[in-house]
Amino acid sequence: xxxxxxxxxxxxxxxxxxxxxxxxxxxxxxxxxxxxxxxxxxxxxxxxxxxxxxxxxxxxxxxxxxxxxxxxxxxxxxxxxxxxxxxxxxxxxxxxxxxxxxxxxx
Length: 106
Prior knowledge:
Layout lengths: L1 E2 L2 E2 H8 L18 H28 L3 H32 L1 H7 L2
Antiparallel strand pairs: 1-2
């Protein structure tokens, strides 16, 4: 299984931490409207940011600088691309209204 672009076995080896339990997953947060979908996606991205920051801090404590560098790239991508885009879309909906936003997406 691939997690964050790397096989789980590689992440487990590099971090020297317990392997994740892949049989347990969080329930899906499916929105009924476009704003709900975007808000759920943003909440998940913000959660990922928090997890990445925690793992980066852990890598610092165990002096695993290569894994830290990989994770910092993933953090930058999450913060600068995904989170930014979702925040912009929600801002557009607030400014122009849902109907105009949806029409502009066609």
